[in-house]
Amino acid sequence: MAEPLDAADLDLVAALQRAPRAGVRLLADVLDMAASTVSRRLTRLVEARLLKVISQLNWSVQPAHPQHLWISAQPGAAGQVAREVAALPETQFAAITSGRSDVYCILQPAARAANADLITERVGGIPGVASSHTEIALRSYASAATWQLDRLTPEQETRLRAENPAVRQEVRAELGEDERRVARALQEDGRASAADIARRLDLSQSTAYRIAQSLLERGIVIPRVEIEPALLGFPLEAVISLTTELRSITGIAAELGRHPTARFVSTVAGTASMIYHGAFRDEDDLAGLLTGDLAALEGIKSVEVAVVLRVLTRYWLPREGVRLA
Length: 325
Prior knowledge:
Number of helices: 11
Low-confidence stretches: none
Helix content: 25-40%
């Protein structure tokens, strides 16, 4: 288990969540720390495999929307099933859960036409899978890029947000080959500079800068901090499926997307109306969402809760406890 993060570490994470590509000098100035201190702390977190700045790609440039897959495993097989699902190249997220299912995962198909083979043959053929249920993501209302620690002053937030444009949820774009290559480079390293990208992809620095800025400004790639919520004081995660009245779906999803515990909110096509993935400080925090916030919303017909027991992969990055593998 990693040592807990101290207050200065948490402030640094909160600042990076607002501006993942901010330079060390700006972070130091905003946080009132020495630049050498910020650099040393950031390097320590990265080298200890506790933190990584990546970029998530807008759904509009993906070949198909994500698939939420709930798997019931045969007795004693949940761990092995989860490991085999997590090993699939299409698996964005995989966790062992209690409640609705034994394993919950999010898959990103290589193409829309590949859905059937991926779900019914490759996942369905894994030894130990008893049954599965799939729901297709339709529209996103919150993501890990919008889940942020509440530690900064309004003045600090204003300065940092000026460095990080608001996340755009709906973008339509056709990318050229160089744009796709730069997008993949930023996906792997959200703080990569134009010089870094140019060297890696054999592009001129001016071309790398122009393409990267265009992708960032259009919301095609969205830089964000990848760190386990447990390190930040949120050890409890739950995935909640909500069924609502049709006329209430958009309003409820938008309201829940603004909730401070929301790490992922999406409307889906399936038996549920939407999926809510939240991070909580404890069971009382989760109870407050269920019996307080959700109970106050008109139009919710049913709720199913799956508690996350262990995360194996998060946004294609395997985990070893709270560390990146």
